[in-house]
Amino acid sequence: MKTQSPLLIDCQYVRPQFAGAYLVVEEERALFVENNTSHSVPILLNALRAQGLSPEQVEYLIITHVHLDHAGGTHALMEACPRAKLLAHPKAAPHMMDPSKLVASATRVYGEVAFQKLYGQMGPIHAARVQVMGDGEELKFGSRTLRFFYTRGHANHHFCIFDSGSQGVFTGDSFGLAYPALQHHGLFIFPSTSPTDFHPEEALASVDRIQNCGANRAFLTHFGEVRDLTSAASQLRYHLEFSAELMNRAIIRSCSNEELDEYCESELRGHFETVLERHGLPLNASTWEWIQMDLQLNAAGIAHAARRSRARKSGGSEVGKGS
Fold first, then answer.
1. Is 314 buried (19+), middle (13-18) or exposed (0-12) by CB count in 10 A?
2. What is the pLDDT of residues 259-306, one digit of tens each?
3. Are 41 and 77 in contact (CB under 8 A)?
4. What is the CA radius of gyration of the chain?
5. Is 163 helix (H, G, I), strand (E, B) or coil?
C-alpha cells in the first residue's frame, strides 16, 4: 500500500499561504503537525473530515515549538480530538500545560484586542495528555517512523521531525521561510531570527542537521514543500552568516540599546534589497508586504541577541519579552 504524503493545510493566518499545518494519515489513523491558532482549528478539522476521518481518529498533535503561530491552537484542537496526545520538546511541554506566561507575554506585546484577533483563546493541556520527545527518539505510526531531533537557533524549545513515509522533514522555523508569492525565479528562502532565542551558531548547526537528516524534501510551516534542500541550505547559511556578522557589529556599536533595533532593521533591509534584486524579485510594495513582518522580527531578534551579549559582558542581565 502506498504511503500517503502529508497534506498541507493553509491556516489562513494573517494572509493565505503564510502559515500552514500538516495532516498525516495512516489508514484509519491521523496526526497533525503544527496547529496554528484557535482560529484555525475549524480549518484543520474540515481538512480531516475531507479525508473521511473523524476527530476521534486523531492520535497525535505535534508542535515543533511553542511560538503561537505554531502552537496557539493546541488546547482547542486537543478539546476537539479527545484521544489525541500532544508530542512536544521538553522545554515546550511546560508552556502547553500552563500557557499563562505565553499569553501574558504576547498580550503585553500586541495588546488584548490584537492578541485575541491573532490567536484567540488558549488553555492548559492536562499533563496526562502530553508526551515529551527526546533528541533522536522515534515513534512508530502505522507503516512510517517519525524521528525527532532538536534544532536550536530559532528557539531553544524547537525540534524537527523526519518522516520515513514521505522521506520528508517537518522543519517548523528551523529551515527558513519560503512564501509561494516570492518563488517567481526559483527558490527564494530566508531564515527566521526572531526574538528571543536567536543563536547564529546553533541556527547554522540546525540547518546542517536538517540537510543531513536523510530527507529529500522539507515541509515548512511558512510555507509548504521545498524539494531542493541543497539550494535552500546554501541560501539559509548566507543569510545566517550575515545575521551573525550584523549581531557582532551591533554588539560593539556605540549606541544605546534602544537604538539597536533601528540600526539592525536598516542594515537588514539593505541586505534584503541586495538579495531580492539578485533573485530577480521587484523591490515593490507587493514584495515588501511579504517581507516586512519578518524583516522587523528578524531585526528585533538580532538586536535582542546583541543586547543579551552586551549584558553578559557588562555583568548585567536582560529579560526577554517573547516566548
1. exposed
2. 899 999 999 999 999 999 999 999 999 999 999 999 999 999 999 999
3. yes
4. 19
5. strand
Between CA 4 and CA 138 the distance in angstroms is 19
| Residues 6+ positions from 53 with CB-CB distance below 8 Å | 25, 28, 30
Q: With CA atoms as reference, report the closest residue to 166 among 1, 5, 2.
A: 5
Cα–Cα distance list, 247 to 4, 73, 121, 242, 303 (Å): 43, 33, 35, 9, 7
Question: In the chain, where are the structural domains located?
Answer: 7-132, 173-213+227-323
Q: Name the residue with cell 484567540.
A: 120
Q: What is the CATH number of domain 7-132?
A: 3.60.15.10
Full strand arrangement of the beta sheet holding 224-226: 138-141, 144-150, 159-163, 168-172, 217-220, 224-226
Q: Residue 43, CB half-sphere, CA atoms under 13 Å: how many?
A: 20
Provide the H-helix boundaries in the chain.
41-50, 68-71, 74-80, 93-97, 100-110, 112-119, 200-211, 229-252, 257-278, 285-314
CB 41 within 8 A of CB 80: yes
pLDDT digit string (tens) for 70-92? 999 999 999 999 999 999 999 99
A 10 A CB-CB count for 42 gives 12
CA distance 6 to 84: 18
**25 — phi, psi (to 5°)?**
-115, 130
d(CA 238, CA 261): 21
